[in-house]
Amino acid sequence: MQPKVLGVLILARNGDRTGFYQDPYTYEPSFTESTPLGAVQSFQLGSYLKSTYLDSSSPLHILDMPLDPSHPIPPSQVHVHAKAGGEGATIFDSSIALLQGMFPPTPRNKIALANGTIVTSPLGGYQYVPVEMIPDSSDTVLESWVDCAAFKKHITKVYNSEEFKEKAKEAKHFFGSVHDYVFGRPTTLENIWNIYDYLNTELVYNQTFAFRLPPTLIEQARALANYHEDAVFSDGEAGGIGNVAGRTILHPILRSLERIAFDDDPLRILLIETSYQPFISLFHMFDVLASRPDLAGIPDFASALSFELLRGPAPEFRDFVRVKFKNGTDDSEFQTLRVLGHEDETIPVTEFIYRLEHYAIPDTKQWNSACGNNRWFPFESTLSTATEQTSMMAVALGALSLFAFAMFAVMTFMKHTINAKRARRNEAMVQQCGVSVVYGYILLDLLTEIVMMLPFRTMLHS
Q: What pTM was estimated for this model as a whole?
């Protein structure tokens, strides 16, 4: 008996885009743009997801989703989160293209006005699915490796490892061969991502370059880039900082499973559109590479990782998770992955959550702790490197305020001491010289105090 699909969580990689440079030592991203090819790839993925989970004839049709394919999708049943990192809007563009394929226009997306007029949404009933985005300066879920001090140390550790150095020696011949085709780019193993991305982009869009590039160079570059990215975005321990890309994205995945399975929530589909890094970390955390070593490395454009929440048969009606992967548009369908050492295709949802939740990083505070980002003020936890100069100014102003307060305290104490001495002096002079002389001294003391306080007040107002 086919189990019922209660809900689906989809992790999708963006489609094709223009060249994309990443700093080899910090992974600070650069701006890139989506392409029509990338939009087509994401649209095809969306169409596949629709036929798999939304068509009424599919055995995996999601429970409580409309059976009529022309019925508009209720917004409460779908949640979409797109990465808005330093690469610009290319990942957001991919999410829109995917949603166009998954929720195509329908003439039933219309509304009746009070005057009797029927208005259909533009483009034949286009469905506007809300997409949640977090600015790149504060997205510790989908770009958690950037501005993470511990992750930068992890990168350095990878580069200094004997295995990495040995791999660089083995690749020496390749770097000598590719040197004339990368036009001044550093031909080192540390920079292999940028070498591969440049070759691949030119091979797709530059016919002259494609005619000149010798055979096997792109395959060698891809193999080395797979090795490099797999080493950087993984760790010997599931909870290690090398897996930070998977650990931060794991929290919304587990939370959504709980919402659907236990909270009587209307949510049925969670879509997270992101870059390739979390896939690598999750494959390691799920322990799938022993049976699928081909997944060690960079997933293709428009790849998708699916988490199906299934309701088992009576009498238990127990809920299970089935994890599937589709490697880009070259894969015709999802392939089931065996996760966490299970031989079966499914794993109880309670076990899945229990074994992974303590690795998840749920908020910015824990991300700062895991990354070893020491911050002076709580509100700085969402700041990126781009705003650290403002933070330093705040620290400087705070120090100046403390200095001013200390000066004020010292001068207050001195004033109190001087006033006490003046009172004793004035009392003695009243007895010796009379009141008029004392008034003269008091006036002189007052003028002296005003002159002394002028610089201090000027400093405070400035």
A: 0.80
